[in-house]
Amino acid sequence: MMKKLKNSSWKAFLYLLPAILFLGFFMVYPLIDVFVYSFEEGYNSASQTFYGVGMYNYSYVLHDPYFLQAVKNTFILVIITVPLSTGLALLISVGLSSIRALKNLFQTVYFLPYVTNTLAVGLVFMILFKKTAYSDGLINLFLHWFGAGPVDFIDGPYWAKMFVLCFYTVWIVMPFKILILTSALSSVNPQYYQAAKVDGTSKMRTFFRITLPMISPMIFYLVITGFIGAFKAYSDAVALFGTNLNAAGMNTIVGYVYDMLYGDSGGYPSYASAAAILLFAIVLTITCINLLISKKKVQY
Amino acid sequence: MEVVLQNLTKKFPSRDKKNHEDVIAVNDFTFTIPDGKLIGLLGPSGCGKSTTLNLISGLQKPTSGKIFFGEDDVTELPPENRGIGLVFQNYALYPHLTVKKNILFPLQNLKGRDKLSKEEMLEKAYAAAKLVQIDGLMDRKPGELSGGQQQRVAIARALVKMPRVLLLDEPLSNLDARLRLQTREEIRRIQRETKITTIFVTHDQEEAMSISDMIVVMKEGVVQQIGKPQEVYDDPTNLFVAKFLGTPPINVFEGRVKDEKLMIGDEAVLTVSGVKDQEVYVGIRPEGYVLQENGPFSCNLSGVEVMGRDISVVCTNAACMSQTVRAIIGTEYKVDPDDQTVRFSLKPEKVFLFRKDTEERIRFE
């Protein structure tokens, strides 16, 4: 019996072998490698040499103003876009599930950004927001009607650029959240609403005491994946501000890692590794906090 | 609270694209439910009994007709203003709230003049919980309770506001057989104690017969018969009601009346005075057979089942519309299982005649 069991588990591992090898080579090994690089000072990938081992890479990165700017940008992006996009998505989903007419049309409209290419959308946003020598852009036209002066959202002040980046990020992440939340809302048994109605529960109370707790697992799922996604933001900033993000002051942590590897200042895999490990530590911490809170708050 | 239904009709638009005729779920239902009684709405699935309940609760609006609670016309009132308690088939307890919070939920909705203090709410919640005997489970979540306990919580939640009318939708269908027996007596007891007019929906005739003061038998949206359970059982108005009530079910035969004699096959089994010569359906209750050596009605014996309390004689007859005829007789009779045929005489009050065309009852003396 024992022997048979061992035999079959050996077989099971054989079946898993291709996947294990693949994951090992392309996921686990690079992860460990990045960790190792982050401690090797002055590593050169061409000659595979380094000067010494220590914390210098971390010290350099943590004192690099570009990195600090990137961390600041990323945190602002995360703190603004995650709650905003989740809240808006919830509002839109509730609206979508309470209308009957044209529901499918609206669902499609709200889902469109999800299937649209990031860079193409970035181009559209540039046209909307960019101020050129010939035109002030569509948004500035609106602002002008309300008596506000033209603002250069793409090359102008920091808050304007951050506004566009946040706006863009919220817009691009919302379809997925709406999709998840509408399906979560429609999976709530309508009898709960009928029971609440018979008991004379107000609409607000029904929403906060019944609907929200019922879909809370999905909301927390979206918040956690939203945090992770926003921390890894990069392509959105590139789509809006071009590849030289440091010059624009709009770099993100992932952007910083990328620049250290391949950018104009590229060729510093050690610094890139250290920055990547720092990002990993931040995301891990935030996710753990999220999970702890969700364990307390998600009630069933 | 007396509940009056006046020509209540509910039509649903047809979903069938070729056939635009409306589906009539409830057709011209008129009935006065007396105050403080337990009423069973009974019928096969799709007969409109749940729709009737939804109309009374206000979750659905009738196409025509009126509903009164006592003197008040509630036809246009939304459910929350009708003063009803509703227990759903799957209980619809809020899974994220404890039993206590579930029962408190309706009370916390009260506003303005009716608003209660925290202490009053708790007092009422505990009173309701005590009534259904779940006061020891107040801090559990519904997921940690058995089906029967969840049912009680649902009833407590429906009762906590002391509704004028309590409505139960298939209250026992999610319970296992033993709990079902227990719970139905429990519902009876709670109803007796609170004296709240209670209407419940079921497809199980035994359930309805056992606890209702009155039953309403429905078929395809039309009320077939209303009455006390025993009266309906003893005096069905048509073949459908006769077939729907009773376990084991009534045996139906094809027969005819000739010279005031009821013929099944070639045998004249009963004298039926005052009935014209015609083809009929004959319904005979299982307890309507009397074993008699030279009785007028003969069947081919296929088996004898001894149940302890009584004997079930299983036999066949060419004129019977189901495969077997089942007669229930007392244990004082002895049936030899090796016999080829058995002979019965019939109790006239257990034999019902129905017209072949309309399936309406034909009465005889």
Word description of this protein:
The complex is a heterodimer of chains A (300) and B (365). By secondary structure, chain A is an all-alpha fold. Chain A has one domain (51-297): MetI-like fold (Orthogonal Bundle). Chain A has 13 helices and two strands. Chain B has 365 residues and is α+β, with helices and mostly antiparallel strands. Chain B folds into two domains: 3-244, Rossmann fold, CATH 3.40.50.300; 251-362, no CATH class. Helix content of chain B is 23%, strand content 34%. Chain B has a six-stranded mixed β-sheet, with helices on both faces. Chain B has a six-stranded antiparallel β-sheet with strand order 13-12-11-14-20-21. In chain B, a hairpin with a 3-residue loop joins strand 16 (297-306) and strand 17 (310-316). The longest helix of chain B is centred in the middle third of the chain and has 18 residues, at 177-194. The A-B interface holds A 189, 191-192, 194-202, 205, 209-210, 213-214, 216, 299-300 and B 57-59, 78-81, 84-86, 88, 90, 92, 94-96, 105-106, 108-110, 141, 143, 157, 161.
Keywords:
heterodimer, A: mainly alpha, MetI-like fold, two-stranded antiparallel sheet, 2 strands, B: 365 residues, Rossmann fold, 2 domains, six-stranded mixed sheet, 8 helices
Write the layout of secondary structure elements.
The complex is a heterodimer of chains A (300) and B (365).
Chain A: H1 2-37, E1 40-41, E2 52-53, H2 56-63, H3 65-98, H4 103-115, H5 118-129, H6 138-145, H7 158-186, H8 190-198, H9 203-231, H10 235-241, H11 245-248, H12 253-262, H13 269-297
Antiparallel strand pairs in A: 1-2
Helix pairs in contact in A: 1-13, 2-13, 3-7, 3-9, 3-12, 4-7, 5-10, 7-9, 9-13, 12-13
Chain B: E1 3-12, E2 23-33, E3 38-42, H1 49-57, E4 64-69, E5 72-73, E6 84-87, H2 99-108, H3 118-131, H4 147-159, E7 165-169, H5 177-194, E8 197-202, H6 205-211, E9 214-219, E10 222-227, H7 229-234, H8 239-244, E11 251-258, E12 261-264, E13 267-271, E14 278-284, E15 289-291, E16 297-306, E17 310-316, E18 325-330, E19 341-346, E20 351-355, E21 361-362
Parallel strand pairs in B: 3-8, 3-9, 6-7, 7-8
Antiparallel strand pairs in B: 1-2, 1-4, 4-5, 9-10, 11-12, 11-14, 12-13, 14-20, 15-19, 16-17, 16-19, 17-18, 20-21
Helix pairs in contact in B: 2-3, 2-4, 3-4
